[in-house]
Amino acid sequence: MLPITNLLKCNIMKVNVNAISAFTVDGKGGNIAGLVLDAGQYTSQQKQQIATQSNFSETAFVSHSQIAEFKLDFYTPVKQIPHCGHATIATFSYLKSQGLIDGETSSKETIDGVRQIFFDGDMAFMEQKPGKWSYTDDELEIANALNIETKKFKSSPVIVNTGNSFVLVELGSIKELQDLAPNFDLVREISEKYLLIGFYVYVRTPNATTIATTRMFAPLYGIQEESATGMAAGPLAWWLNTKDPGIGTTFMIRQGDFMDVPSSSNLHAMISKGEKVSNIFVGGSGSFLHKLEITI
């Protein structure tokens, strides 16, 4: 029998993690995601270890699927998450650049079904579920969590879901958005209460190229602030179009400008309206940065 020390050595695994930035602006900024290929060999516990050590806001694990072209699992540094926009864009941008995808369409299997992917030039777009929404009765709690008064709300906060749930909070000016200093303990409590990923706070700029400028806070998932959140940009685009169809069906959303270390991101949203539901796609560009090796 091998000594215990040798048995421990035999269980050590080295994992290559690709670092890819998604929703970049002219190849810069964006939100960095981890990407692990051939991930079918890892258990859920090992995936969480890899994501924790990598310490990206989300890491995508790609494996074989019997119902889509690829299966994707997403983990933050602290827990698994149903969907992740920037990690999806990072993954499919990389797969396309490496010649692992033929043609201009693909698909992903996630823990709640299949989503379509398409490519437009250097941008990858991901499908999101039709939107659902509900108002919250806790405006004062939300205001306290953001350290502002309720009179700062431009409209009533609303919980919107296109696969993940976020509370959308509209403010009246860019300065108010920039000056936010949330109470992250309260943001976490409200997020847990309503099963939210986090708060997506925005200011509308309907006369500009960018339809809205945003910030996203998700301490429940170990993310104080994120520079690009595709799964929040989709609900916001759908909600703005639902409330005001005159704004159109194709827009750009800006994020990441007001972080402690700014990382500007452009998120492109498209609403394709059918008879009963609206198909939502969010996309952007991805840039490979480097590889790192994780030992678990």
**What structural class do the secondary elements suggest?**
alpha+beta
Give the CA-based shape.
globular
Whole-number average pLDDT? Answer: 93
**CATH-defined architecture of the largest domain:** Roll
Strand content: 35-45%
**Could you say how many structural domains there are in total?**
2
Q: Can you list the strand order of the major beta sheet?
A: 1-2-3-4-6-7-8-17
Could you name the ranges where pLDDT drops below 50 across 5 or more consecutive residues? none
Give the N-terminus to C-terminus distance in angstroms: 23 Å
Helix content: 10-25%
Count of DSSP strands:
17
Largest sheet: 8 strands, mixed, barrel
Model description:
The protein is an alpha+beta fold and 296 residues long. It has two domains: 4-128 and 285-295, Roll (Diaminopimelate Epimerase, Chain A, domain 1), CATH 3.10.310; 132-283, Diaminopimelate Epimerase, Chain A, domain 1 (Roll). The protein is 23% helix and 39% strand. It contains seven helices and 17 strands. It has helices spanning 4-10, 44-54, 85-97, 139-145, 174-178, 184-193, 230-243, and strands at residues 14-22, 31-36, 59-63, 70-75, 80-81, 105-110, 113-120, 123-128, 132-135, 158-161, 165-170, 198-204, 210-218, 223-226, 250-255, 265-273, 278-295. The protein has an eight-stranded mixed barrel. Helix 4 packs antiparallel against helix 6 (184-193). The protein is globular and about 55 Å long. 45% of the residues are buried. The mean pLDDT is 93.
